[in-house]
Amino acid sequence: MKKLQLRIKDYDNNYVTLNNIRNLRFTLRNNREEIKEISSLGWRKALDYAGSRYITIKINGILDCMIADRLLHNSAMLNSINGYEINYGDEEKISLQCSVELYERYYDPAAFDNFTVTLTSTGVVNTFFLTTTENRDLRDVC
């Protein structure tokens, strides 16, 4: 398995790469809206697809790029939405628009600067397989 990478789109639409990712956690959140006292089964079926669905990604690593630090810091402070790519596995990456829910940086004079970032998707999340040209929208995956 190759190293994990976090790529952050900068202000010029170029990607800045963080290579020293220690771990990464994906969480799919699927909050269904519960509505009571609807007698029609047709309404119930329609509401089964309602609610907020998003992916949360928590990443821990060693900060090896000051530009990436500045982009994450500014995105967290301004509550802005940026483009991100995450390369993981031998042949797979995802591309998504996220807001920074949490950004922590640990300063230690005796060690490397560590960071934790929690990203929350704000739109469609696409997954790409690098050995084939197949691109899939996660909404189409069963």
TrEMBL record:
It holds the Pfam family Phage_tail_2. It comes from the Eukaryota. InterPro entries: Phgtail_TP901_1 (IPR011855). This is Phage major tail protein TP901-1. It comes from Cinara cedri. The lineage of its organism: Eukaryota, Metazoa, Ecdysozoa, Arthropoda, Hexapoda.
